[in-house]
C-alpha cells in the first residue's frame, strides 16, 4: 500500500474512514519508509528489528532459510504473550513459525511455491496455504489463478468472481476474529493481521470497484527524467514493471487498487468492532503499516523495489485507544521511521526487553506528549537499497531530500522532496544542488564501506560491482 492512499493524507480519491479514525485518535508518521521495498526483505526488517545490513536481506530472493535468534513474536511469546499471525508471512520454509505460537497462512500467489517441477511437495501451495484449503471446502477445485491474473500483473484488473465473504481480505479478518474467540484469555495477545492485498492481483469485490471505476481518477505523476520510449512496448504486456500502458487499462487498474484499499479499510473496521465486543479495544495498541508501496504508473513505472516515493514510502499509523502510552493524539510526525522500528516499538509498549540484535528504534519517543517540546534524538537519515539487476539501487533520505545511486550504471538522482514531493525533477545536474549531492554521496560512501559487494572503498562509489540479494552471513 502506497503512503498517499489515505483520505486523511489528502488523497483526492481514496476513502479510508477506519484508518483515518485510527490516525485522528493516534499518531500518523508521514515519512515512513520500507528501506528495502519488496515483500521478503521488508518482512525481515519487521520481524527482526534489524536494518537490511544486519538481517542480510538486501533484495528479493525466495527459498533462503530464515534463521534469526530473536524475532518480534518470539520475544513476546517468551514474555507470556499468546502470539498468532493470520495471512501473509512470506518466509522460508513457508510454515516457519518465526516465534509465533501459530500461523494461519495465506501468502498469496507466489511463483516459487507453485512450480511443481522445482520444489519439494511439502512447499507447494496446495500443502502450505490455509486459505486455499478453506476456499476449496466451499468452492471445489477453486484456485488462485481462476481470474487469469498474475500475482504481479500491475496493469490488469477485474472484479472478484465469488461472494465477498470468500475474498482473501475477508478471510484474513474472519480468521483474526476467530483468534479472539480461541485465544488464551489468561494471557495478553499479539496478533499480526497480514493482508495480501492491495498487492496484485487487482481483484476487488464489485461493490468496491463500483466506488471508483466511474470517477475521474488523476493521472500518475511523470517526472522530467522518466523514460518515454519503450522498445517493444512493454506496457502492452499484462505483466510489466515499466511502460506506457493503454489509458483504459491503466485507469481500471488504478480504480481496482484504490478499491482494494477501501475494502481492507472496511474489514479493519469489522475487526475493530469485534475487538470492542470482546472488551479489548481500550487495552490494545494498534500499528498499521505496509511492507512496500506500488508505483502504479508513476514515471511510467509499476510494482516496487525502486527508490521512488510510490514504491518505498508507506503508511504508518499507531493507535492506543486506552492512552496507555500518552500519545499526542491527532498529530502527524515527520521524522523518518522504518520497518526495523516496529519490533522495538511494540516490545517497549509491552514492557519487554529489546534484544541487542535490534538496531531499529522505538517510535514512541516521537509520538508522546511528554517529548514533543523536547524531542529525543532520532536518526539523521535512512539508507535504503534494493538488489535488482541493472536497476540495483541505493538511496539516502532524511524525509526532505533524497539521493539515489544506481550501482550498475553509476546514474545519480537527487530530489528536493519539500518543493518537489512527486519527484518530478531530477536535480542531479543542477549547479545550485551540487553541494548537497556531494554531501549525500559521501554519506552513502560511508554506509557502503566494507560491504562484501565492494560498492565503496571509503573514498568513492564503485560502479558495476556484482549485486547480491542476500548477504553471505545469512547462510553461515
Briefly, what is this?
The chain contains 14 helices and twelve strands. With 476 residues, the chain is an alpha/beta fold. The strands form three sheets. Strands 1, 5, 6, 7 and 8 form a five-stranded mixed β-sheet that branches.
What layout of secondary structure does this protein have?
Blueprint: H1 17-24, E1 26-33, H2 39-48, H3 52-55, H4 72-78, E2 82-87, E3 102-105, H5 125-128, H6 130-138, H7 168-182, E4 189-194, H8 206-212, H9 247-277, E5 285-289, H10 309-312, E6 313-314, E7 316-320, E8 331-338, H11 342-350, H12 364-367, H13 369-372, E9 382-386, E10 393-397, E11 401-406, E12 412-416, H14 434-448
Parallel strand pairs: 1-8, 2-3, 2-4
Antiparallel strand pairs: 1-6, 1-7, 5-7, 9-10, 10-11, 11-12
Helix pairs in contact: 7-9, 8-9
Amino acid at each position: 500500500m502506497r503512503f498517499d492512499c489515505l483520505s486523511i493524507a489528502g488523497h483526492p480519491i481514496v476513502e479510508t474512514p477506519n484508518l483515518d479514525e485510527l490516525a485522528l485518535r493516534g499518531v500518523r508518521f508521514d515519512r515512513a519508509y520500507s528501506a528495502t521495498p519488496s515483500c521478503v526483505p521488508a518482512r525481515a526488517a519487521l520481524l527482526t528489528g534489524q536494518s537490511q545490513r544486519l538481517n542480510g536481506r538486501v533484495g528479493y530472493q525466495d527459498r533462503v532459510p530464515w534463521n534469526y535468534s530473536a524475532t518480534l513474536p518470539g520475544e513476546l511469546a517468551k514474555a507470556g504473550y499468546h502470539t498468532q499471525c493470520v495471512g501473509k508471512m512470506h518466509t522460508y520454509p513457508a510454515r516457519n513459525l518465526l516465534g509465533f505460537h501459530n500461523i494461519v497462512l495465506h501468502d498469496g500467489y507466489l511463483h516459487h511455491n507453485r512450480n511443481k517441477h522445482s520444489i519439494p511437495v511439502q512447499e507447494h501451495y496446495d500443502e502450505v496455504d490455509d486459505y486455499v484449503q478453506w476456499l476449496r471446502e466451499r468452492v471445489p477445485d477453486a484456485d488462485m489463478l481462476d481470474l487469469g491474473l498474475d500475482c504481479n500483473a500491475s496493469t490488469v484488473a477485474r472484479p472478484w468472481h465469488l461472494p465477498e465473504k470468500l475474498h482473501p481480505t475477508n478471510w484474513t479478518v474472519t480468521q483474526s476474529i476467530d483468534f479472539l474467540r480461541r485465544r488464551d484469555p489468561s494471557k495478553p495477545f499479539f496478533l499480526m493481521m497480514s493482508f495480501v492485498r492491495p498487492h496484485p492481483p487487482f481483484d476487488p469485490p464489485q461493490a468496491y470497484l463500483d466506488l471508483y471505476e466511474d470517477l475521474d481518477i488523476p493521472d500518475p505523476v511523470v517526472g522530467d527524467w522518466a523514460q518515454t520510449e519503450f522498445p517493444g512496448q512493454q506496457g502492452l504486456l499484462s505483466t510489466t514493471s515499466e511502460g506506457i500502458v493503454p489509458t483504459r487499462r491503466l485507469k481500471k487498474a488504478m480504480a481496482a487498487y484504490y478499491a482494494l484499499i477501501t475494502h481492507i479499510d472496511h474489514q479493519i473496521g469489522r475487526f475493530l468492532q469485534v475487538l470492542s465486543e470482546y472488551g479489548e479495544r481500550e487495552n490494545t495498541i494498534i500499528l498499521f503499516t505496509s511492507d512496500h508501496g506500488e508505483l502504479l504508473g508513476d514515471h511510467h513505472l509499476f510494482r516496487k523495489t525502486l527508490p521512488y516515493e510510490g514504491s518505498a514510502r508507506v503508511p504508518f499509523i499507531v493507535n492506543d485507544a486506552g492512552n496507555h502510552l500518552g500519545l499526542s493524539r491527532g498529530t502527524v510526525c515527520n521524522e523518518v521511521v522504518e520497518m526495523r522500528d516496529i519490533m522495538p516499538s511494540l516490545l517497549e509498549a509491552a514492557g519487554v526487553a529489546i534484544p541487542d540484535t535490534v538496531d531499529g528504534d522505538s517510535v514512541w519517543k516521537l509520538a508522546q506528549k511528554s517529548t514533543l517540546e523536547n524531542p529525543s534524538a532520532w536518526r539523521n537519515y535512512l539508507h535504503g537499497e534494493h538488489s535488482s539487476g541493472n536497476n540495483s539501487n541505493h538511496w539516502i533520505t532524511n524525509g526532505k531530500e533524497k539521493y539515489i545511486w544506481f550501482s550498475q550504471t553509476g546514474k545519480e538522482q537527487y530530489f528536493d522532496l519539500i518543493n518537489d514531493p512527486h519527484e518530478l525533477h531530477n536535480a542531479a545536474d543542477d549547479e545550485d544542488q551540487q553541494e548537497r549531492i556531494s554531501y549525500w554521496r559521501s554519506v552513502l560512501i560511508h554506509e557502503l564501506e566494507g560491504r562484501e559487494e565492494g560498492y565503496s572503498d571509503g573514498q568513492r562509489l564503485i560502479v558495476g560491482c556484482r549485486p547480491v540479494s542476500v548477504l553471505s552471513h545469512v547462510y553461515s
